[in-house]
Specification:
Pfam families (chain B): LPG_synthase_C
Number of domains of chain A: 1
Membrane topology (chain B): Multi-pass membrane protein
Largest sheet of chain B: 11 strands, mixed
Low-confidence stretches of chain B: none
Subcellular location (chain B): Cell membrane
Structural class of chain B: alpha+beta
Keywords (chain B): Cell membrane, Membrane, Transmembrane, Transmembrane helix
Mean pLDDT of chain B: 95
Distance between the termini of chain A: 32 Å
GO cellular component, one term (chain B): plasma membrane
Largest interface: A-B, 23 and 21 residues
Distance between the termini of chain B: 36 Å
Shape of chain A: elongated
Structural class of chain A: mainly alpha
Oligomer: heterodimer
Chain lengths: ~55, ~325
């Protein structure tokens, strides 16, 4: 499933897992790119959501 | 404070260009750092390269009129090498400039400080701390301010015992202090001994600017010793600093602490903001922020100083991870 197809909580979980993968493979460009895709998908999702009162 | 004019360009820069009020600026002098300068701009940018990233420590230590030009030249220098720039331990004044220039800037944690005039360990708030300190003294602790170059063997004995207790953990670098090297003459070192055997030390680095004083920096103890060793040494140092009229004792930066929506700057990444809160709650394996903050809060710090990370482009997990890589965390 692509990052933008995930729900917000799944994106958050995926972001944490992505960080751990980057730490495990810090020089792997694909891992870094995929991790940043997740973060940016979550950014887009959170920016689109109304701010909690 | 005994620091005087110097020929070291990094020291001169952090002493002179204090507008950002970075309490950790002395870490710029750590051995292992690289320094960027430009011929037509006073001041320096301090960084380390790790993997495909350049991790910058603090903002440019330069005059306001040179600040943005030096930053732009440095960023261009980084990009020209095909590397990516991430800056850490930016202060609010830095963060505002970086955000305005298109960087993605987020709060990453906070530094903590105590104003020493009027500070006292009297009162019920500090009762547990006083009891712990008393236990250390009852167990034979003696504290002295010492010269590091005269206590090399004692420092090595404490370091070896400390590292041996960490199950193969690597000693952190870059954003933590050092003992020794050319900069040592500007630091102060307090050491505790029991029955003549060195058991713990705390190193203090000078802090410049409006909140000048000392920063409680590198601290280590032998495992299994008396409770209260570090607390007793710091309390002793506070007495010494207080008698000297020192204004501020800083406790330095702890990632993931002091997070507050009100500290964020325009354009911040909400996903990265969530990650910082998550790592505060669940990230002890990455960094023991709660343990670190618990020690700092024993001293009832009255000043929280937000600290920032800036990404050249969108927020990046790889960029964030490389801050820890530059610190030798993995």
């Amino acid at each position: 499933m692509l990052p933008h197809e995930l729900g917000t909580e799944a994106l958050r979980q995926s972001m944490v897992e992505s960080l751990m993968r980057v730490i495990g493979l810090p020089d792997d460009e694909d891992t870094a790119r995929e991790a940043d895709d997740v973060l940016q998908s979550l950014d887009a999702r959170l920016r689109a959501e109304p701010t909690a009162a | 404070m005994s620091v005087t004019a110097t020929d070291n360009p990094v020291l001169r820069a952090v002493m002179t260009h204090t507008r950002a009020e970075n309490p950790s600026s002395f870490l710029a002098l750590n051995t292992g750092n690289d320094v960027f300068t430009a011929p037509d701009a006073d001041g320096v940018i301090v960084y380390r390269r790790t993997g495909r990233y350049v991790v910058q420590f603090g903002g440019p230590f330069t005059a306001p009129e040179s600040y943005e030009a030096l930053l732009d030249r440095f960023a261009g220098h980084v990009r020209a090498q095909g590397l990516r720039l991430v800056a850490v331990q930016l202060q609010r004044a830095d963060a505002d400039v970086y955000a305005r220039r298109g960087y993605t800037v987020n709060q990453i944690g906070a530094s903590w400080a105590v104003r020493l005039p009027g500070f006292s360990l009297r009162g019920t708030r500090f009762m547990q701390l006083r009891n712990k300190i008393s236990r250390a003294y009852r167990n034979g602790l003696r504290i002295q301010e010492v010269a590091a170059d005269e206590r090399h063997d004692a420092l090595a004995a404490i370091d070896d015992a400390w590292l041996g207790s960490k199950n193969g953990a690597r000693p952190l670098e870059f954003l933590v202090g050092q003992v020794g090297g050319e900069a040592q003459r500007y630091r102060r070192l307090f050491m505790g001994s029991v029955d003549g055997d060195p058991v713990a030390y705390i190193s203090y680095s000078p802090v410049f600017g409006a909140r000048s004083g000392w920063m409680h920096d590198l601290s280590r103890r032998v495992p299994g010793g008396s409770p209260g060793l570090m607390e007793a040494i710091n309390a002793h140092a506070i007495e010494v600093f207080g008698a000297e009229g020192v204004e501020w004792l800083h406790f330095g930066f702890t990632p993931f602490t002091g997070l507050d929506e009100g500290h964020e700057v325009p354009g911040y990444s909400p996903a990265f903001q969530w990650l910082m809160h998550h790592l505060w709650a669940e990230g002890a394996a990455l960094y023991p922020a709660r343990t670190q903050l618990a020690y700092k809060q024993k001293w009832a710090p009255d000043t929280l100083i937000p600290e920032y990370v800036a990404f050249d482009g969108p927020a990046s997990l790889a960029g964030f991870a490389h801050i820890f890589r530059a610190c030798n965390a993995f």
